[in-house]
Amino acid sequence: MTKNNVKTEKQLKLPEEIWVKARERARSLGLTLTEYVQVLVNKDVNTKEYDPWLEPIPKEVDEQWEKDLAETEEQEKRYPRPAAKTADELIRLLDEEAVRLPNDEGN
């Protein structure tokens, strides 16, 4: 065994139908089950898919967010929205607000 390979004696416990499908897939690729699992694991740990949620937020977006948040909080202080304590109260408040909207914005 080379220093880059690690041998493990751990067993993988999977349902029998998964083993059957894995063996069939490995065979169709001309691989042993062990080689097939090695390829899958290697591919998985070396894949670096782009995830935009892991990217830093651009400074201008963050600044705009902070500005919008501050404006919203200030508006809530000056003109607080009525709070509903029950579903019926919420429905009534939403209906009242919908009446004040222009026809193309929710009516």
Describe this protein's structure.
Among the domains are: 31 residues; 33 residues, no CATH class. 57% of the residues lie in helices and 0% in strands. It is mainly α. The relative contact order is 0.04. The longest helix is centred in the middle third of the chain and has 20 residues.
Beta content: under 5%
The value of Rg in angstroms is 29 Å
Distance between the termini: 72 Å
The largest pleated sheet is described as: none
Parts with pLDDT < 50 across at least 5 consecutive residues: none
| N-to-C series of helices and strands | HHHH
Helix content: 55-70%
Short description:
This protein is an all-alpha fold. It has helices at about 15-30, 35-45, 60-80, 85-100. Among the domains are: about 15-45; about 65-100, no CATH class.
Could you outline the blueprint of secondary structure elements for this entry?
Layout lengths: L15 H13 L4 H14 L12 H20 L8 H14 L7
Which structural traits does this protein have?
mainly alpha; 0% strand; 107 residues
